[in-house]
Specification:
alpha/beta; eight-stranded parallel β-barrel; 44% helix; binds phosphoenolpyruvate
């Protein structure tokens, strides 16, 4: 059975002290309140990761993720962070292709295919983000856009490699806007993504792929979204900055 995941994306928020406090709160709440097999992932700024993996040791239900990685192994890339550096800190997940990276840092599907490769090569799990802009949704192109992001970023992988990915569908118009996709809108595209994976790989690979929804998800709407058959959890931005809200979202999967 595919894994249920609630992943937080802190983005460029929380200084070191604030980050340690927030993560400690999340750890304690998860330990006391999260009952089930769901995985909780915290994707924090690079400078926090070493301390977070140390704090999280022994808490198997909580994993630590990065928000980006460089596509090369090592070398003269001032200011960049490599996959092997992340691996050496016991980081488990890496967000790739977040719409903010596509929009503000010019990340293309071609570049993201390389980042996916290096991430997998070093034994890290990509959370690969796809999603359309408002213009693309309104013009009815959203199936094509999402499909091309998926195909160009990930479909060069073997089935065994693809099976290590988590996909996050994040409509750009819903990120940080307070506007959430309706559960029907989200389910429609999640089912489409799963169908494309089945066509490319197999029904078994598609059935095992965790597909997260992201975009203004909060404790009030998470239940409705996560009850859809093809939505396996969420990638949470704003609400992951408040331990109570974030853990309440993870508790939707309590059994
Ligand atoms: C995100 O940035 O991945 C995200 C989903 O943000 P928010 O929850 O704030 O819309």
């Amino acid at each position: 059975m595919r894994k249920k995941i609630v992943a937080g994306n802190w983005k460029m928020n929380k200084n070191y002290t604030e980050g340690m406090s927030l993560f400690s709160e999340v750890l304690n709440m998860v330990k006391d309140e999260v009952m089930g097999n769901q995985q909780v992932v915290v994707c924090a700024p690079f400078v926090h990761l070493h301390s977070l993996t140390a704090l999280g040791k022994g808490h198997s239900q909580v994993s630590v993720g990065a928000q980006n990685v460089h596509q090369e192994e090592s070398g003269a890339y001032t200011g960049e962070i490599s996959a092997s550096m992340l691996k050496s800190l016991d980081v488990e997940y890496v967000i790739l292709g977040h719409s903010e990276r596509r929009q503000y840092f010019g990340e293309t599907n071609e570049l993201l295919a390389k980042k996916t490769d290096i991430t997998l090569k070093h034994g890290l799990k990509p959370i690969f983000c796809i999603g359309e802009t408002l213009t693309e949704r309104e013009s009815g192109q959203y199936f094509n856009i999402v499909k091309s992001q998926l195909v160009e970023g990930t479909f060069h992988l073997s089935a065994a490699e693809f099976s290590k990915l988590v996909i996050a569908y994040e409509p750009v118009w819903a990120i940080g806007t307070g506007v959430t996709a309706s559960s029907d809108q989200a389910q429609e595209i999640h089912a489409f993504i799963r169908k494309e994976i089945a066509i490319k790989y197999s029904q078994a690979v598609a059935d095992d792929t965790t597909i997260l929804y992201g975009g203004s998800c909060n404790p009030k709407n998470a239940d409705e979204l996560f009850s859809q058959p093809d939505i396996d959890g969420g990638l949470i931005g704003g609400a992951s900055l408040k331990s109570r809200d974030f853990v309440d979202i993870a508790k939707v999967f309590n059994s």
